[in-house]
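Let's practice the habit of predicting before peeking. Look at the sequence and jot down your guess about where helices and strands might fall. Then scroll down.
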Amino acid sequence: MSLFGAEDVESVAGEEVVPKKVKATTKKGQSATKKGQSTTKKVDSKAASAMEKAAVVPKIPKPLPEYDHTQLFERLARSDFRRSFHLCVQDRAYIDKKGLGTIQLHAEDFVEKRLAPANPHNDGSQTPMRGHPVFRAQHATGCCCRGCFEKWHHIPAGRPLTEKEQLYAVSVLMSWIRKEMK
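Done guessing? Here is the structure:
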């Protein structure tokens, strides 16, 4: 579906989609353009190939390594602040609607952009307290900022997280979310 609506555009492989237009004649015999006639512009083959790849390849969550988070969750349970976080009704409905795979993709994205850099923007206050199930999970598990991440997971701040460390963080978040959904 496009901004114009399915009936208002023409789709041709390797060409940019342009709204349909027709020429009509005004009372004075001059031509004017109206919806209905199709026009297309050629797009270079590299751009067309990139558009095809983007449209065909759906994003899938990365496979998570198996970790035993039992000791971590026991330590987190002893913190009044960390154990105060739970999924609300809206979070549960959002997870049911989107599915755990999509939630994991969101977690991967949040970790990559907000936690993985050596010095994240607004570190210490970059994770909202609510608005997305992953945000609650980040606070509940100490994955909300690099200071908390270092304290609870013993992964030093001041350097970028490796891909393995990012997957570990996502694994912690998804484990907490799964426990909360039971």
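How did you do? The CA atoms of residues 25 and 31 lie 4 Å apart.
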